[in-house]
Fold each of these.
Amino acid sequence: MNTLILSSQDIHIASTLLQQGELVGIPTETVYGLGANALNPDAVAKIFTAKGRPQDNPLILHIADPSWLTRYCEEIPPTAWQLAEAFWPGPLTMILPSKAIVPDIVRSGLDTVGVRCPNHPLALELIRSCDFPIAAPSGNVSGKPSPTSVSAMAEDMDTKISAILDGGDSLVGVESTIVSVGDNVVLLRSGGIGVEEIQDILHKTVEIPSSHQSQKPVAPGMKYHHYAPQAPVTVVRGQNAPQWIAKEITQEDGVICFEEYASLFTFSYVKIIGKESDFQEQAQQVFQALRYFDSTPVKRIFAQCPMEEGLGRAVANRLQKAAGFRIVDIEE
Ligand code: TXA
Ligand code: MG
């Protein structure tokens, strides 16, 4: 199958393909998604095949408007409406009790479903024109870094899906923050919205399970090998991390670093992901950086890691997952 690259003028083609049960790559502000009609189990099944995704890893429903929540979820607590009002459209996914209308295959048989209203004009127009929710995981082959551009999505999905809707580069660059919303709000995946921002809105602490610092999964999808380039990644933390990396590497290695330290690594393959304090830039760059090394012959990749606060928490999490939690802490 030839994968069509569609522009914004061709949105009706994307819409028709989705209605026919085909897969379409959709742009969102976080990362590109691999979309299907969420209410059509056969269409959703194709997502798992195209991605090579285990069936026990549920998908997120993308809706066009917060009011759609009541179509697919029940027992929606006031907290969920508060979060929707504050952050939608935007990079927040809420896990809520599901209505029976959401097919089992979307939620892997769980009685909850993840829902988000993406902040991208083309995605919203597309979902609205379909008038059904779009189920979409990130548009990468399972295990690879998520795509933040149409070309990255095509790299993984060319010939496997009907079309990709080109909406430009993803502005946020890391996936949505996932919280389960009940009596407590629990962080399941750090992402485009900082925990601190959520707490500011709710005047309430967001629970961060201690397993966030380890391999133990919180969301089902967090247990799999993730975001990994071909060469093994090591995350190096601590004030002297750049100097340690500079001593360790050879010409055959790659480095992911902050702008301030790039001059230490002139002999290796280097990807700068922004200034040390610029989490927003780092989030935009991190997946492109991880993908870049697959086009080089590097044998190992060493990465600096941002502070784990605000958006930095999500960037640090993606790097640590790419490293399979191979982390070197440099003593001061
Ligand atoms: O920003 C994003 O969230 C992107 C864009 C395309 O919207 N999507 C995305 O989807 O990252 P995916 O499938 O790559 O990650 C969704 C995560 C998985 O870890 C999955 O296990 C978790 O959400 N998840 C989905 N439904 C869930 C549920 N009912 N309970 C717990 N976790 C759930
Ligand atoms: Mg993903």
Note: The mean pLDDT is 95.
Amino acid sequence: MSLKTPLPLKRIAVLLSGNGSNLQALIDYQAQAPKGYQIVLVISNKAQAYGLERARRAGIATCVIEHQQFPDRASFDREMQTVLDAHQVDLVVLAGFMRILSAPFTQHFYGRMLNIHPSLLPKYPGLDTHQRVLEEGDAEHGLSIHFVTQELDGGPIILQSRLSVQKQDTAASLQQKIHQLEHCAYPQVVQGICQGLLELRQDKVYFKHQPLSQPLELSALAQALSEIA
Ligand code: GRF
């Protein structure tokens, strides 16, 4: 019998605006590795987001906070913060949440908020990343998972996954391939944070208590997670 007391599950909230396939990956990962985190809330700024349906099916509480109902960004963000704090959320996971966040909001969740972005940051922050990769003729593309700071798509990078761009690739094919990588990487990063393997200290990402000098590769994280499973 193990004498180790299991860590309490971290309470995470997922913020989304659309399809929510990354939410689904987080739900599925948690179902097969029920340690580390529990999704306590899904917030969407769009009532029609399919991600809300995925949450309901998984029995997760949902909340729609429509940005059009607020006079400005600051008041919209304040409402989200109130709801997140009321749910005692340990970690906020952005998964296709299409709103720019205000400085007070990002500061409040400093070190406790993550984003996934479909490019090898600092290349291609913002939208249409797959098309821009093709237009530039890049040989390589990928995704970045980073802590969120005030700078759009600019916070400290935790992990990147890469793929080679093929001659026949289109924006749609790249999107599909990146999505597959995302579904594999994002839950493991969330799990890594919730299990204490990853943290942010003074704008530096620490992995196993050592500062990272470059973004982590998924194989190293997967290995570390398997050692503590
Ligand atoms: C993902 O490609 C993610 O990188 C970006 O938004 C997309 C969300 O996709 N931030 P989904 O809603 O999780 O399917």
Note: The chain has seven helices and ten strands.
